[in-house]
């Protein structure tokens, strides 16, 4: 029993080593951070996608689409210079829309949306709305309408007993081709680099364990996640 417990402890330690990668250097090469922006929110949220065919006619996709939703700030919370919202998709790597706000155009946003907040509060309001959509999809939904000429509109809608209420809306612009090329290149190189690091670490650990304790390596392989499933499929 003691030997079994020791093997399991060693296995857990190695699993922790495999999960302890620091990809900060790779992530810092993200083109979205090029101008000094800082990420304050990064989640995947289910969206209703709608296409505007004519002025009033729209067509909805039948299923919810998970979109990576990121909130960036330039400056800090007390001295906010710019807010950037970014929507992207793993299912369509060319899908990339951005909403930008600064002290000047926020005056128009505030008046149009009838917001009772200051500009430095804008990021926290955005995050609160996204959190509501993520955590309470029965009451809150995110509807993104793709319009003509590369424009997009995001509406956060609250469902009540009698009607749907628009909580807040954001105007988006499709990113230009040059930025999209940069982002696709970064995503490809980032995944490739992270995979290479993980494969290299795994090979190093396998070699050390194989030399020092071959039976432990066998035990680790038996307890790896998904190992039992693969065995069942083979049978």
From TrEMBL:
Gene3D superfamilies according to UniProt: Spindle assembly abnormal protein 6, N-terminal domain
Superkingdom of the organism of origin: Eukaryota
InterPro entries: SAS-6_N (IPR032396), SAS-6_N_sf (IPR038558)
Residue span, Spindle assembly abnormal protein 6 N-terminal domain: 39-172
Pfam families cross-referenced by the UniProt entry: SAS-6_N
CDD domains, per the entry: HD_SAS6_N (cd10142)
Protein name from the UniProt record: Spindle assembly abnormal protein 6 N-terminal domain-containing protein
Source organism: Ichthyophthirius multifiliis (White spot disease agent)
């Amino acid at each position: 029993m003691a030997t079994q417990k020791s093997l399991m402890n060693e296995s857990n330690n190695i699993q922790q080593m495999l999960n302890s990668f620091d990809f900060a250097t790779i992530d810092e090469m993200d083109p979205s951070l090029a101008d000094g922006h800082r990420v304050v929110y990064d989640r995947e949220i289910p969206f209703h996608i709608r296409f505007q065919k004519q002025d009033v006619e729209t067509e909805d996709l039948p299923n919810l689409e998970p979109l990576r939703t990121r909130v960036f700030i330039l400056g800090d919370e007390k001295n906010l210079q710019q807010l950037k919202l970014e929507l992207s998709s793993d299912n369509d790597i060319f899908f990339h829309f951005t909403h930008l706000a600064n002290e000047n155009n926020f005056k128009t946003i505030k008046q149009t949306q009838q917001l009772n907040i200051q500009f430095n509060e804008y990021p926290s309001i955005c995050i609160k709305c996204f959190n509501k959509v993520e955590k309470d999809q029965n009451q809150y939904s995110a509807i993104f309408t793709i319009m003509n000429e590369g424009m997009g509109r995001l509406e956060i809608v609250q469902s009540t007993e009698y009607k749907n209420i628009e909580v807040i809306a954001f105007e988006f612009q499709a990113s230009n081709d040059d930025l999209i090329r940069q982002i696709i290149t970064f995503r490809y190189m980032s995944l490739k680099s992270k995979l290479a690091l993980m494969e290299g670490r795994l090979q190093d650990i396998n070699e050390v364990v194989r030399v020092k304790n071959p039976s432990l390596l066998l035990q680790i392989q038996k307890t790896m996640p998904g190992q039992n499933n693969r065995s069942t499929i083979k049978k």
